[in-house]
């Protein structure tokens, strides 16, 4: 573009625009200077079920309940208790999903790291000789143990792929960079038997964060580069609250950033700067990076984090796809593990296509 | 996916989930049944300037004013008066943009249709032998005449491309399908001198709608298929208010759907069913369709329309890209015509890459 407008001219343009009192973008509707303006406030409203989503998703949204603010634990013992309380229903859902999807697993220590080897009923030909690496979500603190099998089972079944789900070490006992170190350790073992570019790493939320950070770390260590990533609604900025934390609060069952979620960032970073790129990948300088597919929803508290990271990769000319589901909140695409959900199947199709293109 | 869960089992699963009172998505955070839940309401809030946007965009957002509800015209004369009032500042901005970007134009009738031939200072080698077709936005009623040159100049300058901007006939005097007919007429002339697959059609908002509808129409008429489309924040559902009309109201200077915008849909459709696919492209059955790049923002009242159409094309395996800018409202990407705006340059880069891939 010709950006040859000097400062003075820019000011003149701004003045002129103010004078004619146009709204930006004036592309569409412009208003005369006599109109009364409202300030930039979201007023209270009830939000109806979105048009144009599946009946199945509509039913989920109509039974939606938003997480209330819970008291923040004040010591390790309380954090561990909360971890157990949060993960219990997750394990129950994982068991339902495993049974429903006919996915099996076994525990295995890989170079000292706890993992689950997760296998679908039918392994697709493309995935016979490879394992995908799963990094579970759960705000860095939660979502471990068998509760991690929810997303692992979803991908294993959806793609017909064998998945190693890393049960990485977590705060409060093991803060950053323990989780990344654990995934790197598994990565080192994996690439002994399969080419780096033929495998993928994937995860949602904090799992998306660690997927991105681990990829940066293994690039830094010269351990090759995965062939592709699936990064679902990732937390990429633990320092600043991205816009959708503000705009969509009240629509996403995840609740709010203030309180427990914000505290998990502190617990995870354990005094490291929150703009450390391995803690907040949005602050990374990206040079080369593997092809990455992002998924989020228009009611996702991490929508802004997701689109910011997508743009950050695209600015570095990384091959990166963005898929946004209308009306979905944080991680909603995974609900297909417990109920028929067309949007969930659609997301699997996108991930599958993307992996087929880049690693199969 | 194995969707072999029968109805009975599905009910059992639902009951079980209700019993353990998990939140969906339980992937991340799960709550015990004793917690108190809020209902699905957006409560009033002030929304701060988004983290992670350019200083230039931040400045625009901090001076943002939201369009108030204006009285709806009650007859053709009032509509025409409003048209003139709305378009006047748009023409002024177009003139600023043309001067700033060193883009020139001349009026030309093509087979009886009014158009502007828009030429950048330097035509890129890839575009020497072709013209792109521009369909301006403005809620079907507004944005015509020289005010259409805003977006035409943006693309002409950004891509170094020659652009034919169609000054299509509009309501109240010329409702649907006059606009589509006019673009089809221009298309017929264009393909006399350049291969259909080497050109692109593009437009924003109502212009995105007409871009999509015209493409369907020319496919139906057997007049070939454009090589690519750029569809910016399109209005694809004039029948139902997509979710972001509800969730983001108050953040987008476009204002609200109720009132003038809703009435422009009626004026445009003039009694035709609003779910006619040529009026609301989201209701089209898509078989084959040209590669399409979509752009929107997280504060765009038409974010939901945009992502719905992206998914609709993807469901038919159409090559379609989605780029979402954090904090941007309806059509904000075009603000680069009057001020330096990194996000605007970035959008140009995406459109340019996409067109290079598909038509150059």
Detail the poorly predicted runs of chain A: 1-10, 13-39
Give a count of the beta strands of chain A, DSSP E runs of length 2 or more. Answer: 10
The most extensive interface, with participating residues per chain, is: A-B, 122 and 121 residues
Count of runs of 4 or more consecutive helical residues of chain A = 10
Structural class of chain A: alpha/beta
How much strand content do the residues of chain A show? 5-15%
**CATH homologous superfamily name of chain A?**
Alpha/Beta hydrolase fold, catalytic domain
- Overall helicity of chain A: 25-40%
> Given this structure, which CATH class of chain A is correct?
Alpha Beta
CATH T-level fold name of chain A: Rossmann fold
For the largest beta sheet of chain A, what order do the strands appear in spatially?
3-4-6-5-7-8-9-10
Cα distance, first to last residue of chain A? Answer: 39 Å
Task: Write a compact overview of the structure shown.
The structure is a homodimer of 360-residue chains. By secondary structure, chain A is of the alpha/beta class.
